[in-house]
Recover the amino acids of this structure.
């Protein structure tokens, strides 16, 4: 199983460097976010940062192991890994430990892990394996589409029952993978419009939205070559959108409970409820906003280390970046992160093997979704969904699972030259 | 859409998100500066450093008032965790209902916040404090704040020192925000008048706190902190021993003693009886005790010596004699006969006729009625109003009819009517000396506070001038800087006219009406008086100074409802002067015993002084 022909030169060192850059930034931010002058020892394993250091070491070791494994292993064991991760999810649902209202943890001694994290790359592997099969045409074959959906929805549903909204939503990121593999663009667009309309429905009177939609549709039909089919589709879309907008409004006003309404209102900026539902986001914005252009300097922040920001070393870790390194540091950070995503995207595209490509896309999609929600949440423009910022947030199982996710792809990518040789 | 455009679309989405987030970061971190302010608001806590209140000493440097630590139990409601209410109530010795009621009350208080410290119970006792400290860990959210309150070494001079208490909302408004709810401020006496000196200046310390309000360090190494400036110490002009003796002598009596050093105007003793122990006006029970004292029918809170006006009686004859000489209607050789009085003003039997000095010694009513008549009916003036106005001016120049300006709160003006007052009653030019003849012997439309009496005595002792009486001798170990207290106030009487009056006053002690006030080895000058009291027995009045040459002390004593001046007021004044001049007051044991034990309050309860 050990890959005898892995040559270091085939590893994408830039990705590896970006990984370590982010992990180190993460460690420094975890350190800064709970820093106490009385206890400045970064090696102190009784503190978050000391433990994170150990996790980095374990992750590095695990990463090295993955790089040494024969790449065929992942193809061969994709389904077993997927099956095991789904079984673990079921097991945890039945006998898991409840932490902060979600029963998604397995506890072994003092060690805690979240199978949902591992289900991500399990699903990625299974999806890649399934779609890369011989004669599989996702674009045309309805059956293939349904099975693909099932592969994604199975773990997603179990996680939803564990009360882990964040992890559940992460699985929606596979839509990008499916899009790459042939899902029509309009579904992506429709999904996007659905979200926009939902938000608008809560902000504006549904009647105005419907009027606006009718006006837009009329203009659209006026300027394009009208066919009966197009008119029918447009009218149908308007009717559907109108129904949706009205029902969202209805659900919001009549079905949701007061605290849920408050939460949504806060998110939409309609209500500022300091110390209530909006407290976390407000404090997060204060921490980032007070960083200014150049930041307060490493360890010089006050909002994070004095605990005004909730979950300041896990979900709200980006606040420390914003507070201590300012606008310049934040822009650098966002740029590096997007660059990593770009690089992974390019790496996925250069794969000759469909399995590698689909897996690569899964990695990019999952990381992007985490970045999108997590950073957006701290900036107050995304809902407060508790998912970590990959490589940065404190937490062993998160770091481990993201490391595995990424390193499997680095391993797969390292064999692309072999594939070329094989194919030629 | 072909496959090669799909990664591009994804890349565009990535870059789009990056741009949106960077714009948002730009807005939060660069455009909107309010977050810097909010962040400061989060972590910066302004802490007040309370300065030590200035100490109060007597004129000889004996400590009278000092500061004592008190313990306030405060709470940050948000930080209360797993509170064992029953145990908590047990330690504090309150019932559960009180506990609930207190919380309900705090919540209604202005500016209440779950995240801010608020006083749960003021001034817990030291045993409670000790018991509480042991359990502090069990009562998370609660903590004890140490402040200082006043303590009094002696139970004397309550009216002089006054007391402090918590500021009212009016005080806060007036102070332009300097005072905060719960701060102490001087409410009466020296504590009030010298609040600015005694109070010091509060300091401010900026500390960083975390979200649980725990201190995390100083803000910018204390760059913006200001130190508290301690209050200034004050030396009163009061002589503690003299004051204590005065209060002892007036115990079980209603009255006043004011003693002044004529040379400086410094008040040596200011006794108001009945009084109260200033230590009552300290601590948690201050409010209740205040209400009790306020309701007490004997009016212990009333500062008699500076605010109660009495008809001066015979002691006013000295002033009338001085006026007569100044108006050139009287000379030391002027004689008047007395046949048991003058018109409807009676007189006691004595030799007749008498010259001025003799008339003082026997306190002849007829003589001074004649003098008064010759002043007010002085043909030098066209109208009686003009002549009376001269009389008014002279009396005014001795400090009568207006507040002298002592550094105490609530000084009264006394009663001295201008000519227009009589015009209103009788009509213009429709009255003359005989209409107001009783004023010649200190009765009628006259009211003088014991402070004004003592001040007039000092003016006589000084032969024509006085310094405005004052209670504070030194502030911060330097002389009272108020120029009012170092300016000579000249009376309208020439110095030369005083000799005969002073000789007469000496005769009063040596062989006149107040022989009881004689102090062996000291030449005392004095005058008795009896103020008619329409509500009951007359008030006993005496004023005196000693020694005759180079006077060291001028004193006025009023004992209400006690009859003639010689029976109570004169001996008390004599004992006090002896104490001040010789340091001893027990050479005349029988007299001292009689004065100390004299109880005038058990009788005549209905005839106590009534304020108008
Ligand atoms: Zn007579």
């Amino acid at each position: 199983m050990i890959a005898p022909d892995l040559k270091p030169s085939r590893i994408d060192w830039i990705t590896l460097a970006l990984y370590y850059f982010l992990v180190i930034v993460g460690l420094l931010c975890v350190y800064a976010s709970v820093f106490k002058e009385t206890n400045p020892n970064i090696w102190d394993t009784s503190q978050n940062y000391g433990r994170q250091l150990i996790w980095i070491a374990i992750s590095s070791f695990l990463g090295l192991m993955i790089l040494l494994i024969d790449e065929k292993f992942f193809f061969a064991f994709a389904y077993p890994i997927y099956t095991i991760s789904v079984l673990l999810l079921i097991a945890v649902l039945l006998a898991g430990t409840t932490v902060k209202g979600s029963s998604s943890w397995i506890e072994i001694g003092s060690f805690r892990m979240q199978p949902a994290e591992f289900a991500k790359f399990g699903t990625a592997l299974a999806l890649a394996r399934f779609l890369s099969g011989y004669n599989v045409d996702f674009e045309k074959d309805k059956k293939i589409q349904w099975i693909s959906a099932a592969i994604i929805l199975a773990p997603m549903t179990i996680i939803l029952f564990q009360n882990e909204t964040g992890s559940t939503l992460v699985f929606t990121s596979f839509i990008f993978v499916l899009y790459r593999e042939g899902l029509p663009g309009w579904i992506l667009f429709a999904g996007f419009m659905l979200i926009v309309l939902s938000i608008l429905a809560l902000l504006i009177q549904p009647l105005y939205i419907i009027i606006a939609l009718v006006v837009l549709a009329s203009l659209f039909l006026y300027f394009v070559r009208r066919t009966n089919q197009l008119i029918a589709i447009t009218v149908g879309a308007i009717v559907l959108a109108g129904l949706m907008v009205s029902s969202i409004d209805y659900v919001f006003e009549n079905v949701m409970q007061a605290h849920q309404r408050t939460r949504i209102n806060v998110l939409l900026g309609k209500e500022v409820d300091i110390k209530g539902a909006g407290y976390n986001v407000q404090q997060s914005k204060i921490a980032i906003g007070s960083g200014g252009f150049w930041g307060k300097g490493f360890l010089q922040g006050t909002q994070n280390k004095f605990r005004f920001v909730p979950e300041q070393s896990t979900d709200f870790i980006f606040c420390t970046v914003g507070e201590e390194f300012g606008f310049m540091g934040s822009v650098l950070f966002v740029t590096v992160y997007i660059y990593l995503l770009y690089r992974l995207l390019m790496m996925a595209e250069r794969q000759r093997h469909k399995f590698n490509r689909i897996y690569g896309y899964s990695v990019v999609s999952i990381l992007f979704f985490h970045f999108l929600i997590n950073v957006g949440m701290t900036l107050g423009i995304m809902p407060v969904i508790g998912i970590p910022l990959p490589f940065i947030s404190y937490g062993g199982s998160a770091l481990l699972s993201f490391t595995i996710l990424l390193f499997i792809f680095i391993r797969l990518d390292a064999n692309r030259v072999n594939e070329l040789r094989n194919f030629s | 859409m072909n496959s090669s455009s799909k990664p591009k679309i994804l890349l565009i989405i990535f870059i789009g998100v990056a741009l949106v987030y960077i714009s948002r970061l730009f807005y939060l971190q660069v455009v909107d500066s309010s977050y810097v302010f909010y962040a400061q608001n989060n972590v910066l806590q302004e802490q007040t450093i309370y300065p030590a209140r200035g100490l109060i000493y007597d004129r000889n440097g004996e400590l009278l008032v000092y500061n004592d630590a008190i313990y306030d139990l405060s709470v940050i409601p948000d930080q209360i965790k797993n509170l064992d209410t029953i145990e908590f109530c047990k330690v504090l010795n309150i019932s559960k209902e009180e506990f609930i009621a207190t919380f309900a009350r705090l919540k209604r208080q202005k500016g209440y916040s779950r995240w801010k410290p608020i006083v749960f119970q003021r001034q817990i006792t030291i045993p409670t404090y000790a018991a509480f400290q042991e359990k502090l860990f069990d009562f998370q959210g609660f903590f004890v704040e140490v402040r200082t309150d006043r303590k009094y070494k002696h139970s004397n001079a309550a009216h002089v020192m006054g007391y402090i208490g918590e500021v009212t909302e009016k005080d806060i408004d007036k102070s332009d925000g300097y005072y905060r709810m719960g701060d102490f401020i001087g409410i009466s006496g020296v504590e009030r008048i010298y609040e600015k000196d005694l109070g010091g200046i509060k300091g401010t310390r900026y500390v960083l706190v975390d979200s649980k309000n725990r201190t995390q360090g100083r803000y910018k190494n204390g760059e913006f902190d200001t130190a508290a400036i301690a209050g200034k110490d004050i030396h009163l002009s009061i002589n503690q021993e003299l004051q204590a003796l005065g209060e002892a002598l007036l115990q079980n009596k209603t009255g006043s003693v004011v003693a002044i050093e004529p040379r400086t105007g410094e008040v040596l003793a200011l006794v108001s009886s009945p009084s109260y122990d200033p230590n009552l006006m300290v601590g948690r029970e201050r409010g209740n005790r205040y209400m009790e004292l306020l309701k007490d029918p004997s009016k212990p809170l009333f500062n008699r010596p500076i605010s109660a006006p009495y008809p001066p009686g015979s002691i006013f004859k000295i002033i009338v004699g001085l006026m007569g000489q100044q108006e050139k209607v009287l000379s030391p050789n002027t004689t008047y006969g007395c046949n048991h009085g003058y018109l409807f003003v009676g007189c006691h039997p004595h030799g007749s006729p008498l010259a001025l000095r003799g008339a003082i010694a026997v306190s002849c009513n007829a003589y001074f009625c004649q003098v008064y008549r010759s002043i007010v009916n002085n043909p030098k003036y066209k109208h009686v109003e003009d002549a009376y106005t001269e009389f008014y001016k002279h009396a005014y120049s001795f400090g009568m009819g207006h507040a002298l300006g002592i550094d105490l709160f609530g000084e009264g003006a006394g009663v001295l009517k201008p000519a227009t007052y009589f015009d209103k009653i009788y009509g213009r030019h429709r009255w003359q000396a005989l209409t107001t003849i009783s004023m010649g012997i200190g009765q009628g439309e006259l009211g003088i506070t014991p402070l004004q009496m003592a001040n007039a005595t000092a003016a006589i002792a000084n032969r024509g001038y006085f310094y405005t009486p004052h209670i504070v001798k030194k502030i911060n170990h330097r002389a009272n800087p108020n120029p009012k207290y170092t300016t000579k106030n000249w009376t309208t009487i020439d110095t030369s006219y005083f000799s005969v009056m002073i000789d007469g006053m000496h005769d009063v002690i040596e062989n006149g009406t107040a022989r009881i006030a004689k102090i062996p080895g000291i030449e005392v000058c004095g005058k008795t008086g009896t103020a008619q009291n329409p509500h009951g027995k007359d008030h006993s009045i005496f004023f005196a100074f000693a020694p005759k040459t180079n006077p060291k002390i001028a004193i006025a004593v009023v004992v209400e409802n006690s009859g003639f001046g010689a029976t109570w007021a004169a001996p008390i004044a004599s004992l006090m002067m002896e104490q001040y001049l010789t340091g001893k007051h027990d050479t005349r044991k029988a007299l001292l015993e009689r004065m100390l034990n004299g109880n005038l309050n058990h009788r005549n309860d209905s005839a106590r002084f009534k304020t108008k």
